[in-house]
Automatic annotation (TrEMBL), chains A, B, C, D:
Location of the HTH tetR-type domain: 23-83
Protein name: TetR/AcrR family transcriptional regulator
Coiled coil: none
Compositional bias per record (Polar residues), positions renumbered to this chain: 1-11
Transmembrane segments: none
Protein species of origin: Streptomyces indiaensis
DNA-binding region: 46-65
Length: 213, 213, 213, 213
DNA sequence: CCATAAACGAGACGGTACGTCTTGTCTTTCT
DNA sequence: AGAAAGACAAGACGTACCGTCTCGTTTATGG
């Protein structure tokens, strides 16, 4: 948004010069934002609170972000990028053992575990809530946070179609929703408990259908 | 702490006497809350604004509701109850033509239409967002707003099981999520367009499975 | 003030029938008002508080009095009337031993003592403050609370003039101010300490003048 | 509680930095406060009203003053300081023609005139009333507003003592009350009319005594 | 000895102001 | 010029009382 290509267009208020930006402040703001959201919840997390905790002037936040949600989104994205670079099984890769059922169950179990980790749960809940009500932010969230994961599903489902494990006439962008949406709804809206058994069941029902064969 | 005649627990601040409540004020508050949410959005809807628009003292709101979300939830419930009593096809009945696919498609098309009506979309989005972040409210929303509809799905799916159109070993409470959750996620999180074709596809995929038969 | 002689004039809102007034409530209101003023101070004494403490409906106060100050004034007058009927030296009599200096010193010493009694100090301070800012109430206070005492001074000073102890060309209504006003100002405005020595000095200075003879 | 560099005691809420205070806002607040008190009276003068009229946020008032009375006191002091710097007879000087009676009459006549000027009367009445009930404020009023004038009286009376026009054994701090207190009481408590004749009489009575010589 | 009407307790109501909190802007000072 | 610091105008928060207005419930004659 607001692609700041090069020599900024004269918009009255001259845009900040990102080359002189303080990296230390950025990190401190990310850390403070995430910590506060986890500790006191999103509504009680304020720009002032973040600035104070980060040891930063308020203006430094307003200069670089447009809203509390914006700060949190970037902080969360940054967190996600960091964890990618951690050792261990790269979460940005989708397993492909040849058994689509087993592979999807695997991924969903990991997702369930993540949803039960407050460091993930609280900020992403907050962002999701904001995105529900603020369409612009919502679309940005989908594009920057969710789409990469969804693409992995699509890719794996295409492979399953090639292997004859999923019907060729099925749209993978819809198919993946059978795995993700019920879990997402239970998680976000507290409509039901989430567990490994539950996601396993989802995969079985989705693949084989509700109707008798 | 003052003689407490019978029921409610003594909460220090004696509870208001609901028999003396002003029905006119309640209605005015519901109307103002819904109108404001639609007009200016949830975050800019304030208790002060509702009170002013309803021609009511702020205390009258605080006396009977605990938060902005609480007001809006009751206003929305009230709206739902009213529309039930309107003429036309009762939305609290689930069609049963004997064809589960057709019946579910029918209901989902109506749901899609509702989601495209701003009078429904804006307040329910606001409530859903609040419920994501506030678990207590979220559970209340599920219980009071969503559960009645879900029960209709469950009931219809059980009938379909009896009729042999849905496998007997399928849990209807999970099965219904294949119809509802993908649509809900697209709607709430803007993850994709919603249309009659889309929901029709959902029903077909869900009933017959993703895997080849 | 709004003399309600007999068959009241049709003023729209029919005046309350004072013959049916509850004496018990009146007493309870007086007691509550005086107690609250002493305990929490005048500004924190509220009509609601008085009503609650007296076990009385707010309307019962509004029916018979026009303001908080009005209640307190009547309560205080009532208190004064009661103390008159107590045994001991009647304060409504001014001593006349033939020695004007001694008699005035006597009375002023009693006044000093009264000013140091919180039961008198707090409510009368509150009333005086209100009277400073609200002329109507101020005049009523003077007429109903202060004038009777002032008249005793005038009477005694006239006697002193007859006895040749005070110059005949002196206006007693001004002369009495030399005794009363300095003390009143020190008391009300905290401009100085008040004591028996102080009032004795006042009397001496006033009688014999500041200039050398 | 946070590093407190040097002087002021750590009060939890760090004190505002008075070097960065907006002079424009201060002036606007003084003007608004005085204007409102004169126009609508003290009780109907509210902090919100002052802020609105001054075009200032409420917090800017609460940051620098502790109460409505505090604002008004400083506004009034500021007004007094300003009028000192005006041309004309400096009110901070007490005339000394050698005739103590004439000089005091002079000053009292000016005081009477001031009491009849609503710009002075209304705010100072309000402050006096507040000081009657709030001892802390009262003492501050005396020290900051009244004492300077009283000192002039004391100084002039000492000179009169040196000149043999006032008895040497008289305490000037008490003597001055004969001039000031009766006038103050008539003014504040509406116990009588105030005029030049009245104050002239006060001076004569006070100097020569009530008793025959 | 009721009938009836007023005063009463209780407290909900539309309002106003309180004093606090946070927002997003602006200004000052330091680096 | 960026950043820390924080004052500022604006305005919502939730609370406390205001003075008015019903509600039943005493209570106290007067028919």
């Amino acid at each position: 948004m607001a692609a700041q290509k090069s020599t900024q267009p004269a918009t009255g208020k001259s845009a900040p010069d990102s080359t002189r930006r303080s990296e230390k402040s950025r990190r401190a703001i990310y850390d403070a934002a995430l910590a506060l959201v986890v500790e006191v919840g999103y509504p009680k997390t304020t720009i002032e609170g973040i600035a104070a905790r980060a040891g930063v002037g308020k203006q430094t936040i307003y200069r670089w972000w447009s809203s509390k949600a914006d700060v949190l989104m970037e902080a969360f994205l940054d967190l996600a990028e960091q964890s990618v670079q951690e050792p261990g099984p790269t979460p940005s890769a989708f397993p492909d053992t040849g058994d689509i059922a087993a592979d999807v169950k695997d991924v969903l179990r990991a997702t369930v575990d993540q949803m039960n980790d407050p460091r993930f749960d609280v900020p992403s809940r907050a962002l999701a809530a904001e995105g529900v009500v603020n369409e612009q932010l919502g679309r940005e969230l989908v594009a920057r946070l969710m789409q990469p994961s969804l693409d992995l599903y699509i890719h794996r489902l295409r492979a399953a179609q090639d292997a004859g494990q999923v019907r060729a006439d099925v749209d993978p962008r819809i198919a993946l929703e059978f795995f993700i949406s019920p879990l997402a709804q239970r998680w976000l809206q507290h409509t039901g408990p989430i567990s490994h058994e539950y996601t396993d069941t989802l995969v079985d029902y989705a693949l084989h259908g509700l109707a008798p064969r």
